[in-house]
Structure formats: C-alpha cells, structure tokens
Amino acid sequence: MEKLVINGGRRLSGRVKISGAKNAVLPIIAATLLGQDAPSRLDEVPALEDVRTIREVLEKLGVKAAFDADKNTFTVDASVIGSSEAPYDLVRRMRASFLIMGPLLARCGRAKISLPGGCAIGTRPIDLHLKGFEALGAKIEIGHGFIEAAAPDGLKGTHIYLDFPSVGATENILMAASMAEGQTVIENPAQEPEIVDLANYLNVMGARIRGAGTNAIKIDGVTKLTGRDYTIIPDRIEAGTYMVAAAMTQGDVRIDNAISEHLKPVIAKLKEAGAHIEEDVDSIHVWADKRMKAVDIKTMPYPGFPTDMQAQFMAMLAISEGTGLVTETVFENRFMHVDELKRMGANIKIDGRTSVVEGVANLTGCQVKATDLRAGAAMVLAGLVADGETQVGYIHHIDRGYDHLVQKLVGLGADIKRVKE
Ligand code: UD1
Q1: Which atom of ligand 1 is found nearest the CA of 166?
Q2: Nearest to 91 by CA among 129, 66, 56, 133
Q3: Ligand 1: which residue has its CA nearest to atom 29?
Q4: Closest residue (by CA) to atom 7 of ligand 1?
Q5: 289: which of 98, 167, 298, 333 lies 20 to 30 Å off by Cα?
Q6: pLDDT per residue as tens digits for the range 266-307
Q7: Which atom of ligand 1 is nearest to the CA of 308?
Q8: Which residues carry out catalysis?
Q9: Pairing status of strand 85-86 against strand 110-114
C-alpha cells in the first residue's frame, strides 16, 4: 500500500498541463467496440487506473486493446468480439465498465454483465440504463449477480424520456441506438461535455447523431460503424481541481489545455470567493492574493455546478473566511470527506443533503484517507494548506482519476511525495 505525504504551506505557482478527460475516454473506449473494418486509435488518453481497468475488460471480451501510457494513446481492434460477458472482478472495480452493455447489445445482440460497483457514493442504481435498453426492444434478466440483455432480432429506434439526466444512461443508450433500426430520440438526456465528445466520436465512426449537449438527442440508426482515430477532450474536473489548489494556496497558476466554456460554474464560484481568473483560448490563469471568502454551492447536472468538484470546494471552504453551504443534489451520501476534513480541524456540520462549513483559520496535518476519488483530491488540497505533515491513505482511489498528480503538484512547487506504507 502506498500513501501521499504532504507538507503544507507552499504557495503553488507555474504552469500545469491538463490530461484527457477520464469521463470522456471511458465511454469512448466502450464505443470502440462498435467499430468494424478498421482499428480505432485514441489520443490524449490519460494514464489512469480506470483506463487500465477498461483495457482489461476489452481483453476479456476477446478484443485487442493496447494502452501506451507514456504516449497517451489507446488502440483497439474490435473487428472480432469473442465474448459478450464481463466478469464481476472487473465491473466491481469500476462502475463505468457497465458502459460496454450498450455497444455489446448493438454489436452482438446480447450482453451479460455483472452488477456494477464503483465509488461508494450513494446507491447508484442502473434502472435508467435498463429502461432505455428495454425501450429499444431488449429483454432484460437479472439473477445471480448478473444482468443479461438480449435483442436477437436487433434493436428498434424509439422515444425515450429520462426521469433524471443520468450521464451513464445517456451514454449507454446513445451507443446502443446508434446501430438500432430507425430513429431514437432521447429526451432530458445528460448534457455534459463528455456526452458531446462521445457523440462526436460516434459520428466520426459513421453514426448519425444530432443534438448532443442539448435537451434532446436524435439518433438515426446505421447498420455499420467503422473504427476511427479520435482525440479526447481535456478533463474539466482535473482542471477545476488545480484551479481550486491555486486559489486555496493563494498561488498563481496557469492551467494549460483547459476549455473554460466547460468550467463556467467553477469559474463563477471561484471569482465569487475572491480568486482572479483570466480565460484564454485553451488555458486558464488563476491567482489569489488573500484568503478566500465563503460561498454557497449546490451541485446540479451540467451546466450546473459539478458534483465531481463538490469535495474540492468543501476543502477550500474549510479554510475560507465565513460560512458556506454545500448542497449535494446529484448523489446521496457524497459527504464522506467531511469526517476526514474534520480530523484536520475543519468545522463542518451535515444537515441532510447540505453541509454547513464554517471556515477556520488553519487546518492541521494528520493521517487521513481518500474515501473516494474526488474526496481523495479534497484531502490532498487540504494537505497543501495544512500546518505540518498530512498523510493521505487509500490512494488507489486517487489513481483512478488523476494523471501524474504528484509530478504535476511538485512542478507547481508543492511538497508532496508518494511513499510505501
Ligand atoms: C458520471 C461520472 C461521475 C459523475 C456523475 C455525475 C463517468 C465515468 N462518471 O457517473 O464522475 O460524478 O456522472 O456527474 O462519467 N441514477 C439513477 N438511475 C440510473 C443511473 C443513475 O437513479 O440508472 C442516479 C444515480 O444514482 C445518481 C445520479 O443518477 O444519483 C447521477 O448518476 P449518473 O449521472 O448516471 O452518473 P454516472 O454516469 O454513474
């Protein structure tokens, strides 16, 4: 087991380059399963555990997949799919493995996948994915820890209204419907930039999708998709995390390879807290010359404030001036970082879906753990400003989603290292 050891109190400064988006690359790798005739080569693929896990999933399906983490390329040859079954050990490790269900159904007419696991944030059901597949004509059976879906005569285009704009359900339905017979309309879909990136890749493969990023997506099914090359968009959550790090440490950081359009609520809230922000074509400059002021945040589906930035903002509010309210509406039970922040001296009370964060002048370093991916990022941010040494354990959660975190922070002047426990 490894842990991160951080000595707090350093002001971050310099430039950091953002990697490709985890939440775009995972569905896009799933979508490579739809590509026949030619391999797909993806660029700007981040060096993350989740990418290694989905490569193993593809391999279990008998598909050739290679990941070069140094060159950030991922190649898939899905001309032959040997199996349509994904086992428990892989799906349990990463919930996003479930995104292969849509492509397998479309391509093979059946899929058998273990019920998903993933971050322990709320119950995270998959009912919306399954309702979508059923609407497209698939028969679903659940038993012995597996979900089996079958559409021996192919999928049929239809109208689907999502009760909640689920990111994963929108992606799974989008991939399945790309090869369904006729037109599918998804109403109230997720509008995240990662949905748009997936739709763009599918269209490059030959799909006919319009309206991704709006409140209705229209898909005219095609009979065949072809493997193609594609470059993944930058990770807006990684960018947002470094923006908060710059503001919290009263630093001065230029974040390269970031699309500010994808970060509007994060930028607005950081400005409200007192940070200075300048947006450029593909970089964002963040600096701060005094302690941040408390702000209120409420997580919402895109274009609202992202739930994946909630924990990092909570770490910032813990040392800001005044009292801020953090309301989580997307996931239940996404406040596991609160107890860890309290160990460092934060003053936070949870009242249902809202946390009341009263800023303190200082946090103190101690042993804490990453309870999930973004909670782990929050603990690192807290460690960067805490007095003395902070040790963050369970960092496998952080490795799932932050590419070269230690190297990037050291490059900005942080005192952080990875050590064996
Ligand atoms: C994706 C992101 C994750 C992010 C989340 C919300 C990936 C790989 N992960 O997760 O980082 O935090 O979007 O922005 O892209 N729900 C249901 N039924 C369903 C599906 C979801 O009730 O069938 C609920 C969930 O329990 C949750 C909410 O909808 O409360 C949001 O989930 P969803 O948008 O599906 O998130 P993911 O795709 O799992």
Answers
A1: 34
A2: 56
A3: 166
A4: 23
A5: 298
A6: 999 999 999 999 999 999 999 999 999 999 999 999 999 999
A7: 12
A8: 119
A9: parallel
